[in-house]
């Protein structure tokens, strides 16, 4: 069999073979992260459908456009500012490089600072670097996710321009700052306190929820949300089926999200590590996300007494609650914790809406914010002592609390401060008349469900005369008003 090998292979030196294996490993790693990015796109398809279904018909397109323009705005701002922040603020302050220890194959995660901007060497057609660009894209999609989380909370009354300013700040500076502190092997929370948030319970979800809460306090509730007696009205979205389908698409995209949170140590392919450089497996985190959805659905179902929206939202809350420890949890423990997470989301969502009188249109503060912080707290209780990172610093309850205390003001205060400034400038919220009419009519001058739109019609009298009739629904092709036939505009024939 050996004699049948190509001659060049038989004559290859050990160094050449090792070099080829290393290159092949890097190319496979590049493909891995590329496909995680592709799968993660479904998260944003899901957010658009989810929020569109949860909005009322008059605000459908404005809600969808917010999600599309999130990508348009956050992509360049993250490229020019966000990635640099991640590389330069791991120890809390900008500096030239890091003193953090490195692991072969993980160098692209640590130390982007220096005399050259971090995107210059890693991006573009660089045949020597098969990893950094696609890994950058994975982080970019995390940035979109933070904006989309806030987007759902503020639908139906925020100005588009105000939202885009806020989402650029959240997606390109706030969340990536906390990632530098606590979602990197060189971050000060990790090296000093063993902070552990493997799949971003708090780093992405909790921070986005806290930022959204700060915005909501200044934005205020939708008109008519609360009665004079302080009771909360329920605003039904125009299409619950679309909302539930959107959530299912988000769940599908989460598999790409989870996979992108792992690192392949290319010299020992496939050597799976979490974001801190601690060993784990792809199968372990895939199992936790699956059982986390199951547990979250269960908790949401029971806590909400079978409400469809909160049952599926409970699934998302369950996964968020176990993401911080997804690399170490036993499946049975993950199942129980995710059940509790689904229940916590329902209970806190009701409290935020009815007691705090904060109008969070999709429960994002409860599902992402509260459960994001809750997930990190659970690691301190159930995974204390687990060595985190290449420094092998033991995680602890105190270390998890330190991360929570650092990230809450980091996220909440900018959200509150920037939205307060926009509010004072009268740039945060649409005028009341626009909100009542619907943002779609104000922004696009049309109703995107024309079959339900009332427009003036032509009435054809029995003698053939055409007279103006009362506005009717366009899908009512043949109706009668006071015994007279009404046909849509442009129909001139009389029907009996």
Please write out the topology.
Layout: H1 7-11, H2 14-54, H3 60-88, H4 118-122, H5 132-153, H6 160-182, H7 188-193, H8 201-219, H9 240-260, E1 263-264, E2 272-273, H10 282-304, H11 308-323, H12 331-354, H13 364-382, E3 387-388, E4 393-394, H14 397-424, H15 432-437, H16 439-444, E5 454-455, E6 458-460, E7 466-468, E8 472-473, E9 479-481, E10 484-487
Antiparallel strand pairs: 1-2, 3-4, 5-8, 6-7, 6-10, 9-10
Q: Could you explain how this protein is built, in words?
A:
The protein has 496 residues and is mainly alpha-helical. α3 runs parallel beside α6 (160-182), α9 packs parallel to α11 (308-323) and α10 (282-304) packs antiparallel against α11 (308-323). The N and C termini lie far apart (88 Å). The protein has a 4-stranded antiparallel beta sheet with strand order 7-6-10-9, with no helix packed on it. A two-stranded antiparallel ribbon has the order 1-2. The chain has a two-stranded antiparallel ribbon with strand order 3-4. It has helices spanning 7-11, 14-54, 60-88, 118-122, 132-153, 160-182, 188-193, 201-219, 240-260, 282-304, 308-323, 331-354, 364-382, 397-424, 432-437, 439-444, and strands at residues 263-264, 272-273, 387-388, 393-394, 454-455, 458-460, 466-468, 472-473, 479-481, 484-487. The chain has 16 helices and 10 strands. Residues 92-120 and 472-496 have low confidence and may be disordered. It has 2 domains: 15-436, Ammonium transporter fold (Orthogonal Bundle), CATH 1.10.3430.10; 453-496, no CATH class.
């Amino acid at each position: 069999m050996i004699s049948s090998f190509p001659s060049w292979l038989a004559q290859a030196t050990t160094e050449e073979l090792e070099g080829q294996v290393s290159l092949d490993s890097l190319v496979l790693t590049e493909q891995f992260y590329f496909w995680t990015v592709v799968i993660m796109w479904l998260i944003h398809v899901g957010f658009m459908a989810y929020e569109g279904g949860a909005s009322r018909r008059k605000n459908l397109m404005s809600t969808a456009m917010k999600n599309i323009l999130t990508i348009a705005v956050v992509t360049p701002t993250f490229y020019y500012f966000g990635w640099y922040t991640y590389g330069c603020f791991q120890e809390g302050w900008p500096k030239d490089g890091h003193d953090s220890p490195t692991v072969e194959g993980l160098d692209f995660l640590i130390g982007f600072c220096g005399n050259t901007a971090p995107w210059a060497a890693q991006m573009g057609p660089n045949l020597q670097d098969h990893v950094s660009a696609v890994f950058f894209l994975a982080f970019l999609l995390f940035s979109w996710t933070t904006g989309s989380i806030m987007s759902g909370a503020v639908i139906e009354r925020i100005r588009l321009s105000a939202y885009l300013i806020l989402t650029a700040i959240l997606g390109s500076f706030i969340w990536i700052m906390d990632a530098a502190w606590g979602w990197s092997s060189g971050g000060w929370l990790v090296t000093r306190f063993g902070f552990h948030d493997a799949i971003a319970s708090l780093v992405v979800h909790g921070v986005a929820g806290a930022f959204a809460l700060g915005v909501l306090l200044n934005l205020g509730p939708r008109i008519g949300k609360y009665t004079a007696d302080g009771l909360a009205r329920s605003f039904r979205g125009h299409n619950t089926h679309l909302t539930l389908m959107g959530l299912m698409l988000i769940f599908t995209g989460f598999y790409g999200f989870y996979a992108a949170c792992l690192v392949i140590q290319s010299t020992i392919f496939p050597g799976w590590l979490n974001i801190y450089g601690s060993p784990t497996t792809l199968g372990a985190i895939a199992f936790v996300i699956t059982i986390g959805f199951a547990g979250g659905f269960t908790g949401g179902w029971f806590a909400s007494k079978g409400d469809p929206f909160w049952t599926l939202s409970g699934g998302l809350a369950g996964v968020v609650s176990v993401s911080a420890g997804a690399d170490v949890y036993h499946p049975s423990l993950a199942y129980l914790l995710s059940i509790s997470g689904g229940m916590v989301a329902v209970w806190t969502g009701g409290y935020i809406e009815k007691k705090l009188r904060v109008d969070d249109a999709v429960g994002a503060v409860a599902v992402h914010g509260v459960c994001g912080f809750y997930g990190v707290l659970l690691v301190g209780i159930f995974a204390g002592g687990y060595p985190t990172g290449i420094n092998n610093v033991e995680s602890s309850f105190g270390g998890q609390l330190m991360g929570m205390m650092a990230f809450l003001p980091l996220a909440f205060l900018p959200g509150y401060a920037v939205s307060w400034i926009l509010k004072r400038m009268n740039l945060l919220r649409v005028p009341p008349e626009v909100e009542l009419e619907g943002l779609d009519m104000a922004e696009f001058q049309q109703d995107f469900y024309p079959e339900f739109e009332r427009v003036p019609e032509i009435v054809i009298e029995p003698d053939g005369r055409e007279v103006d009739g009362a506005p009717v629904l366009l899908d009512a092709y043949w109706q009668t008003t006071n015994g007279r036939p009404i046909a849509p505009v442009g129909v001139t024939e009389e029907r009996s």
